Amino acid sequence: MTVRVHIKNFQSILDGIIEVDGFTVVTGSNNAGKTASIRAVQGVFSNPSGDAFVRHGADKLSVELTFDDGQSVRWEKGPKVKPTYHVGGKTLHPGRAVPDEVSALGIRPIQVGQLSVWPQVAQQFSGQVFLLDLPGSSIAEAVADVDRVGKLTNALRFAESDKRSATADLRVRRQDVESGQKAVDLYSGVDAIVADVVKVESLIGDAQKLAIDVRVATNLRARAHAAEKEIGALAKSREVRVPAASLVEAARSAGLEAAEMVALRARIKRARVVLDALSGVRGIQVPPEPTGAKNARDALVEARLLRARLQGAKAASRRMQGVAEALNGAALEQVAEMVAKASKVSKTLDVVVSLRERRATSQNDIGLMKTQLQTRAQQLATAEAEVRAILDEMGACPVCLSVNPGSHAHEA
Question: How far apart are CA 40 and CA 392, in angstroms?
């Protein structure tokens, strides 16, 4: 595993970078910074107290380790800067302790008896070979512990990897939640708007019903005004009774008789004029026979016509005298009133007859329509039977290729 170590303002080191790849030995002359480099790396994982490691004149020291798997940790502290760790995207201030996120990187000491031994970073004056200066029991304990620590380290590494993955996933999910919350915030007033829309729709429905009621009320008001006018026109009438059918028929007969009487009255007037014109006629003398045969025949025809006219005039005069005597007993005003009533009754009877004729026509039309409907139903049943027979014979519907054409339909 490759580790890049970046040290700034640690003891004699102003700014230095070391690449560690596997087993690495640091050599050099005295006061070259070898011990400072080892202490800087150990300081990241031990967080020693005090600020004696800070370079003279600097505000704080900084040691950053970057591993080849993408993990990194940076440790900072100074006289006026409390111990600070930047690891896994977090900034931690653990005081004098070492954060669990740093210990999870796997670089830590192991206990061998009463000693704390660093397997990854050897002490400067502990000997050239790791653990060889310790008793055999301590070495055995350390080796056993190292094996357990290695397994634990791998487990912690995997756990940390899963944790980083889960943290990244959690970060993405939080971003999704934030985005979703922002999207939801855009619709924060939708519920109220929906409620308002429902209310408006209800009000629109009520308004439509009220509009219908207003139209009906307006129509009723117009009819009421018309009725008031009719009532005002009929205010002088005390009572109106509908005549019985017998009276209507009698009035109809009286109307016909009155009409005949009016016609007879006119004929009487004309007869009186004729009588006045013929009042001076006492007799008709046949002129002497003309000299010619033609003139004689013409005079004879004229005489016969005059005689027929005279006889008709006398008969008419006798009839007119009888009618005049019959009319002398009846008042002309009563006759006119009866004629007017008979005219109204006649109009009413004409309307009733018209309605009866329209009703008979409608009944005939309804009967004809029922007959046509029955005919169409029979034709439809016959057509459906023929279609089913054809589909059964073909075995499949030619439109949808259904194998069960007996009971299905298609839209037109």
Answer: 95
